[in-house]
Amino acid sequence: MSSDTIGDLSRALRRLGGTVTGGVARLGYMARFLGAILWYTPMALRRLHLTVREIYFSGVLSLVIILMSGLFVGMVLALQGYEVLRRYGAQEQLGLVVALSLVRELGPVIGGLLFASRAGSAITAEIGLMKATEQLSAMEMMAVDPIARVIAPRFWAGVISMPLLAALFSAFGIFGGYLIGVRMIGIDAGAFWGQMQAGVKVWPDITNGIIKSIVFGAAVSLIAVLEGYDAKPTAEGVSSATTRTVVVSSLAILALDFVLTAFMFRGVGL
Amino acid sequence: MNRAAIDLWVGVFVAIGLGAILFLALKVGNLLTLDSTPSYHIEASFDNIGGLKLRSPVKAAGVVVGRVESIRLDLKTYEAVVTMRIDRSYAFSKDTIASINTSGLLGEVYVGLDAGGDTAILNDGDQIAKTQSAVVIEKLISQFLFGKAAEGGASK
User: Which B residues, 115 through 154, put their C-beta within 8 Å of a C-beta on chain A?
Assistant: First the structure.
C-alpha cells in the first residue's frame, strides 16, 4: 500500500472521529445548557411578564399559520381518507381516521415543524443578534444573568405554547375534515362524530398527543436558544445558526416522534 | 405593544388553546357525554362475545342507548358477563333479548337489545336471561364445509 492511500485513510478516520467526538461534546454542552436553564428558572419565573411576552411572540403570532395549516391538512386528510375508505365501503370511519391521525401524529409533528420554522428561527436570530451587538455581554456587566433574563423565558414560552398550538392544529384539522367529509361529500354527521367518539380514547390517544407536543416544544425551544446563544457574533454566524435551528429541530422532532411513538403505542389496544 | 395588551392576547391564546384541548377530550374523545347522564346497569351472559370491547355501543333498533362498561369471564359457567350502562330515559322489559351484532362486514361490534312484551322492566343490576352470542365466521364456514362434505358422502 502506498503512503498516499494510508494518508488519505488516516485523514478520513480522523475526520470521522472528529465528527463523532464533536457531536458528543455538543450533546454534553446541550445538557449543561438545559441544566443552567432549569437552575435559573425560579429566577425567571419571578419576572413572569418576560415569559408572557415571549408566549406572545412565539405562541400568539404563530396562531394564524397553525390554524390555517391545520384546516388544510384536515381537509386533505378527509379527501384522501374518503378515497381509500370508499373502496371498502367504510366511509363512516372517515371521522375516526381524520381524528386519530391528527391527534396522534400530525397535530404534534406538523405543529412542531411549523413552530420550529416560525418561532424557533426567530428566537435564534434574536438571541444571535443580541450576542452580535454585545447586549448579552452588557447584561453580564450589569450583573444580570442573560440565561435568567433572556434564555429561560424563551425556553418556557416554547414549552407552554407548543401543546396549545398542537391542540389547536388538531381541533382545526378535525373541523376541516368535518367541512369536507360532512358538508361537501355528504357523510352522515352523526356517523362522522359517533365513529370518532367510539374510536378515539382520551387515554392513550389524546394524552399521548399532548405529551408528544410538550416534548417537541421543549426540544425545539432548547435547540433554538442554544443555537442563538452559541452563534458566532457575525452576520454570517447568525444566519447559519438560524438555518441550523430549523434543520436540527426538524430532524429532532421526527426522530423523537419515532421514539415516543414506539414507546407509547406498543401494545396498547391498537 | 404595552404590557397590558400583550397580557390580553396571551390570555386569549391560552384560553382558546385550553378550549381546543377540552374540545379534543370531550367532543372527540367522548370523555363525559354519557357518563354525566343518569343511567343504570344491566348484565348479560354470552357464550361468545366475538370482538366486543369496552365502550362498545348498546343499541336498540339501531339507536345507541348505552355503552359496554365491563367484560369479565364467569369461571363457573365459562361465559362472558357483559355489564352495560344504559341511559336512564330508556326502559326495557324483563324478557328483552340481548344479542351481539356487527354493523356491516367490517363494521363495529355492538350489543343489540330487542324488547319483548313483558310489562315488568329491567332495573339496576338485573340480568338479561335470553342472549344470543356473536357469530364467529370461522365456525360458520367450517359448519358449511362439514355440511357439504356430509351431503357429498350421502349422495354417493
Answer: none
Residue the block writes with cell 411578564? A49
Is the CB of B108 inside 8 Å of chain A's CB atoms?
yes
User: What ipTM score was computed for the predicted complex, to two decimals?
Assistant: 0.85
Say if the Cβ atoms of B28 and A163 lie within 8 Å.
Answer: no
Phi then psi dihedrals of residue B110, to 5 deg: -140, 165
Residues 6+ apart with CB under 8 A from B94: B116, B118, B120, B121, B122, B126, B129
pLDDT tens-digit profile of B19-72? Answer: 999 888 888 776 655 555 788 899 999 988 887 877 778 888 888 888 888 899
pLDDT in tens, A97-132: 999 999 999 999 999 999 999 999 999 999 999 999
Q: Are A109 and A88 within 8 A, CB to CB? A: no
* Sheet of strand B57-60: strand arrangement: B126-128, B39-46, B79-87, B63-74, B57-60, B109-114, B97-102, B130-132
For residue B31, which residues of chain A lie inside 8 Å, CB to CB?
202
Note whether B9 contacts A201, CB cutoff 8 Å.
Answer: no
